[in-house]
Design goal:
39% of the residues lie in helices and 19% in strands. It has 353 residues and is an alpha/beta fold. An 8-stranded mixed beta sheet has the order 3-4-2-1-5-6-7-8, with helices on both faces. Strands 11-10-9-12-13-14 form a 6-stranded parallel beta sheet, sandwiched between helices. Helix 5 links the parallel strand 6 (117-121) and strand 7. The longest helix is centred in the first third of the chain and has 18 residues, at 72-89. The two termini are 20 Å apart.
Length: 353
């Protein structure tokens, strides 16, 4: 039985695109005979050092505390803990799920139990972080295999580090098709939704500004912002400033299993990201046969085919977001056709198996 050590910045019960993908992937691969263990970091949430997820052991380490406090003794302790963990697991493969403090310690402790390393890149760091001899460069150059989740990311990696071209490739993000069948798009009344982690780069402030334009023309339209994150207080304040507090609902954290249901209740999804390496929400939207209006950035154009399965607008273009959503609201048949196109396309191009 092949043993795989997955190293991820965060893991269940933290929920984000990368965390959902890895949890689903490990569960599916476990059924195929692979054995997994997870090394992840402690966060602000009080979680135990050890627990399990679907029978997969999770071990949490104080990566960030050691590095942010710049405590050499603590860094040594964590490095030794990671080394002991690797020696205990005896992995046949180490899978680094993106770049993080976890990556630093895994690189430091690699000699304790050397194993072939796969790195999956979900998003690129700032240019200032990928200079010569950076952790990013050293990790990718030493990796045995590099996987990018979109062609956009792969192209940028090869531009930065051309010597990785022979050992890098794309495996597009995929999700198992939900058992829930799509309902007809609701137009009486319509509901627009943005869903994801509430961070500034997700552009939910732009979604609210676009919705304020829409609401003047369609006062009966509602909007839902589903998810949680540090930008939530500012977004709630922005909603009040725009006078939308009675027509915009913030759901808070959403169980991943409930996401298809939420999308199914919506007429269209808005995804105004300022940066987006792939765009898992766009994939989930397509699975539920909903049109999406998203920004033409990162990997989103690989998921959304403009004019066929949804619309793409330029970053920060709130008027463009509003105009495309207004078109959807005014043309129910075209919107339904886009949703059907999106579902067919995702089944053909984004196969979970």
């Amino acid at each position: 039985m092949m043993r795989v050590l997955l190293c991820s910045e965060l893991f269940w019960p933290h929920i984000g695109g990368a965390e959902i993908l890895m949890a689903n992937f490990m569960t599916a691969m476990k059924k195929r005979g692979y054995q997994f263990a997870v090394a992840t970091s402690h966060s602000a949430r009080k979680l135990p050092d050890q627990e399990s997820y679907n029978g997969i052991p999770i071990h949490r380490f104080h990566f960030h505390r050691a590095l942010t406090e710049r405590n050499l003794d603590q860094i040594k302790v964590v490095r030794e803990q990671v080394a002991e963990f690797r020696a205990y697991i005896k992995p046949d493969i180490v899978h680094l799920n993106d770049m993080s403090a976890n990556t630093f310690f895994q690189m430091q402790a690699a000699s304790a139990y050397p194993a072939p390393t796969i790195v999956t890149i979900h998003g690129l760091p700032l240019i200032s972080e990928i200079m010569e001899n950076s952790l990013f460069n050293r990790t990718l150059l030493s990796a045995d295999r590099i996987v990018a989740v979109s062609q956009d990311i792969l192209d940028k990696i090869r531009e930065i580090l051309p010597e990785t071209s022979s050992k890098s490739s794309v495996i597009l993000n995929d999700l198992e098709l939900p058992q829930l069948q799509p309902d007809p798009l609701p137009f009486h009344p319509p509901q627009l939704m943005g869903i994801g982690r509430l961070f500034p780069h997700k552009g939910f402030d732009l979604a609210l500004e676009a919705f304020s334009i829409i609401h003047r023309l369609f006062p009966y339209v509602k909007m839902v912002i589903a998810g949680d994150g540090p930008a939530k207080p500012d977004l709630i304040q922005h909603t009040k400033k725009l006078g939308l507090e009675n027509v915009v609902k913030f759901t808070g954290w959403v169980d991943p299993d409930k996401v298809p249901e939420l999308i199914n209740e919506s007429t269209a999804i808005i995804m105004p990201s300022r940066r987006e390496p792939f765009g898992l929400v766009a994939l989930q939207t397509a699975q539920m046969a909903r049109p999406i209006v998203a920004t033409n950035v990162g990997g989103l154009p690989e998921v959304v085919e403009h004019g066929y399965s949804g619309f793409l607008v330029e970053v920060e273009d709130t008027q463009g977001l509003a105009d495309r959503l207004i078109y959807i609201l005014k043309h129910p048949e075209a919107a339904s056709r886009m949703g059907a196109n999106a579902r067919q396309r995702v089944q053909e191009l984004f196969s979970w198996d």
